[in-house]
Amino acid sequence: MKKMISLAWLGTCLALSAASASAQTLRIGLAEDPDVLDPTLARSFVGRIVFSALCDKLFDVDEKLNIVPQLATGHEWSADNKSLTLKIRTGVTFHDGEKLDAAAVKFNIDRHKNLAGSSRRGELAPVSSVDVVDAQTVRLNLTAPFSPLLAQLTDRAGMMVSPKAAQAAGDKFGTAPVCSGPFKFVERVAQDRIVLEKYAGYWNKAAVNFDKVTYTPIPDATVRLANLKSGQLDFIERVATNDMEKLQADKKFKTARITEIGYQGITINVGKSDRAKNNPLGRDARVREAFELSLDRQGLAQVVMDNEATVGNQWVAPNNPYYAKNMPMPKRDIEKARALLKQAGVINPSFTLMTPTTSDAQRMALVIQAMTRDAGFDVKIQSTEFATSLNMADKGEFDAYALAWSGRPDPDGNLYSFHACKQPLNYAGYCSAETDALINQSRSVRDPAQRKKLFEQIAAQVLKERPVIYLYHRNWLWAFNGKLSGVRQIPDGLLRVTGLKMAP
User: Fold this and answer.
1) Does the structure show a pLDDT above 60 at 358?
2) What is the mean pLDDT of the segment spanning 11-39?
3) Which of 44, 231, 327, 425 lies at a 20 to 30 A Cα distance from 193?
């Protein structure tokens, strides 16, 4: 009898062991804790990494930034380019079981445009109305031709949430989001973890090979790497630049290097709040020019990024076809910087540079502090948790802000929301009627040559006022378990979880 019980117990253990082995969790280390998990309100890059598993979009981009179908299977522009008709994929459901159809798409576009605090409003500003043509066809009507629209729909403006869940949750939707991606929301503990589990009803479930995904925010790159090496994580983003060489030589891990489509810059409060009037950097363009002239971009890229970056002075990199060559990169010139400060009547200007708590942001702040001291600047550093820093920037509670932008496939995505008057990401508070007119014109023109001329005119305006001082364009540096396959290197820097597999 004892032997029979013992064999039964052994069989149970083996079954449990087999079940445990098949129930795989993908563990991802993030450089920051995301802000709200509502695609309409969200602003953080790391939030987009989580959304890539949680919320599918109407379109996506591939490794060459081509726009490819996701929830929309096809599109057609009208002859006058003032409407865009989309065919919606059939058989798609949200995580609450509700059907994705044309009415749901209309709800989401309207929500992006009208919800209080929406960060998508500017991205979809030219969309005047949305028509449900039939159950799986929707038409977006525009006030004027809008060339970046498809590109906008490859990001959060194209993410679809459950209308039923969004209406029921109201402003609390971001605490328990319901989307249509490969994984559904389970829990979130701030500064600790975000847990998602596989959605059984996913339209492309054959491409999903994990049962759960957990995201752990670890701001310190050294600690993130230690967790990868100890087996506590399977994948980490933003590896410290000085760790890449050793990782590449370690056969237990794989690495990836992707040049971003965004930028690292310093956003200056020139009109966001009264605080702009109380610091010399915010109230005088000559002081901002002096600040830029005291910086050595190549030195920054070398010291802060170990040359894992391309220096630049605009919202797109110098190799981008829309880079404005009429506004070349200024070289460091301490004498001219001092002369400008003397003209402005501010010999030793002092201001506070707010930075996120990430390792590279901290290093950058220290190097900037040292470089600008040569021209007479006194830069104080304020290290702030990332989501908190975004909220402070939104309220204008800063002098200057070290803010990285992950970038968008169309240059408009790096430009409009940051420099058009009163747009949600215009933390600088910059506003110029002339610049607005040029930006709006660039959005209505589809011919690349015409758009390039307009971007040159915009650059001449914006780079003279310097609401943002652009520094460089980073390489996305990833490291992951050598057994993990299917990692796609797409320039937006987001890890796609579909297609990923972990070998035994």
Assistant:
1) yes
2) 72
3) 425
Strands annotated E in 93-182: 127-134, 137-142
pLDDT over threshold 60, residue 154 = yes
SS3 of the chain: helix, strand, coil, percent, to 5: 35, 25, 40
* Mean predicted lDDT score pLDDT of the chain: 94
Residues 165-196 pLDDT 10s: 999 999 999 999 999 999 999 999 999 999 99
Question: What is the number of helices (H) and of strands (E) in the chain?
Answer: 16, 20
Calculate the CA dihedral of residues 11, 198, 220, 367 and round it to 10 degrees: 150
pLDDT at 259: 87
27's tokens: 């563990």
Q: What's the chain's length in residues?
A: 504
Count of CA atoms in the C-beta half-sphere (13 A) of 301: 18
Domain with CATH 3.40.190.10 in the chain: 24-33+170-260+480-502
d(CA 95, CA 72): 18
Q: What would the two tokens of residue 318 be? A: 């110098």
Specify the domain boundaries for CATH 3.90.76.10 within the chain. 56-163
Query: Does the domain at residues 263-475 carry the CATH identifier 3.60.110.10?
Result: no
String of DSSP letters for 367-433: HHHHHHHTTT-EEEEEE--HHHHHHHHHHT--SEEEEEE-B-SSTHHHHHHHHSTT-TT-TT----H
Predicted TM-score (pTM) of the model is: 0.81
Distances (CA, A) of 71 to 32, 55, 74, 136: 28, 10, 9, 11
Is the domain spanning 24-33+170-260+480-502 CATH 3.40.190.10? The answer is: yes
